[in-house]
Amino acid sequence: MEVLWKWCAASVHSTTPMRLFTNAIPTLLMRSALALVLLVSSMPARAHADEFIAQRSALDDPPHDPSDDPIDDPMDDPSDDPMDDPMDDPFTDTPPADPDAVPPTTTAPTPSIVITRTGFTLADATPEESEALNRLASSKSWTSRALAAMRLERFDCEASAGRLRALTIDASWRVRAYAFACSARRGIVLPPEALLAERDVMVMRTILRCRYPLPAADVDTRIAAHEKSGQPIPAMLALEILAAQEIRDDKPHRKRMDELLSNIVLRMDRTEGGTLSPRLAIVTGGDDSGRNYRWREWYRKNKKKLEYRSSALVPSPPSGERLTQPNRIAQLDATAFLSFEQYLALVATRPMDLAILLDCTASMSREISQAQGGVDDLFDFFGSVTKGVRIAIVGYRDRGDEWETKAWDFSPNLADARTRLWSLAADGGGDTPESVFAAMKLALTKFTWLPDATQLANQPIRATVIIGDAPPHAGEASLCIDLARRGFARGVRFYGIIARDHESNLKDEDEEGAVTKPAATPRDEDARKDDPQDGAQGDSDKSEKIEDKSKSKSNGKNSGKGNGKVAPPKAPPPSMQKKPSYTRFPEIAEAGGGRADILREQDSLVAEIAELTIADRYRAEFSEFFEAFRLLCR
Predict the structure, then answer these.
(1) What would the CATH number be for the domain defined by 349-632?
(2) Span 452-505, pLDDT tens digits
(3) Nearest Cα to 508, choosing from 418, 583, 408?
(4) Where exactly are the structural domains of the chain?
(5) DSSP state, 66?
(6) pLDDT tens digit string along 237-253?
């Protein structure tokens, strides 16, 4: 019965006792009846805790409101986890209670959820783990301090809660966002003055999504400039904050959100549409199309029946009890955590060169859209976890198309990467094979890769990611494999991302029907508008020169040439070992020391790039760290 009484008591104690008292009388009566039934039946509370929670949810929860369902976020799709394990979901959006049950202008209370405590305290940590936590918390890198916040979610003790509270006043707004999120998941109650002290509106968004209370007047003052700016990106942040307040049945509040959404959708340009598309999808439940004109079409169809999602990170306001299962980094045992911490510390000392080879034929519209919309996240995150990132791009089609390849050498500037990616569009193709070999040859022989460092620990990360849904031309697959092998000997690893979840991508090359390329999607409406603009034409001219030079014999010189001592290539993942892909990407990646994965419909392209090139054997943990970054820091 101990769990039962704790749970009942937690429903009464809150920062807003009078409001909860008036709304909680029927709930407490029903809980008392259930408690009496359990007591008479002499059922051990601990043995039947799960059954009791299920009964309580079925009897006590308000009617389901479909408008409050979580959206299908490509970064956080429940179909990724067939076991529905809550530990696989770092920051989830749980639907709020039925708004019809509360007075206007108030936030609908959400039923409490019982999560078993981990039982770990900081006193249980090994000396090595304690030292690692101290290193992370005192690091100059914000990513290390954010990692410390995620690890502190493991412990159920006042000492760890105090350390999380200390991180909520960190100098980096990103670290503060992580700290507030992890504190809320732990159920840590924060004093009002600590919440009001936060001045950054990005962190304020996280605070509200964590269901910590902030006075509405104070929120309005903070976002006034964003709301009146008339610019899509500031207006998007204001819309997210208003939605996160979860104010129901308030017409002026709803009108403000409607006006903000209208301004965002109708004014955003192509680049803003790609960048804001995932955030619009989270708030409105619309499809993450990545295209401004598609969002305008969606708005015209839905503007009279708009629904807004709070995107809450916890199921109920923090009240002292743990609200979610610990994240994956918090679940690692001490040995695994130390290994992960040391790996990230090593990555942080290494600069990175990332070459993206992107199939730009008509069937690749979705992937091109994801690359364009996600390049800001990718650049920002890689630049944070490594010593610095440079990105090079090769767009490739087919020999008979308007152009076969477009290439841009490495640049450390986000603006360059953004402009170059947005100059690409899905068009052409038709037959199955594409110019994969020409793209690989450009990347390996003509790009100015970082040279080797004098110290082994500071060796640059050199990665080439091929993204496509079709194989090389006949007779060129073996050339691609040989080229990847030569690149790996020089310190450049190759990875493959097989676009589209098609069965044909897992058939032998000589199997009947295997060479039928997946059906092309409708041609991108902006294809004719996608020629390089605003100074990008010079890069396009440069790319044509690179292409012409690549047809001549290579002199074999490369600034990234290594000493020839390389680790053996990794084997393809089990899913690739069962059936070879007709794209030949798994064989190319294996020869290049990397691996290839299929990009399924619900997967995020930029998350896949991050996991392939950086995560190594810590893919699950790294994926969660990156996902939290995308939810909290954009």
Answers:
(1) 3.40.50.410
(2) 998 888 899 999 999 999 999 999 999 999 999 999 999 999 999 998 644 444
(3) 583
(4) 1-65, 116-211+319-347, 219-311, 349-632
(5) G
(6) 999 999 999 998 899 99
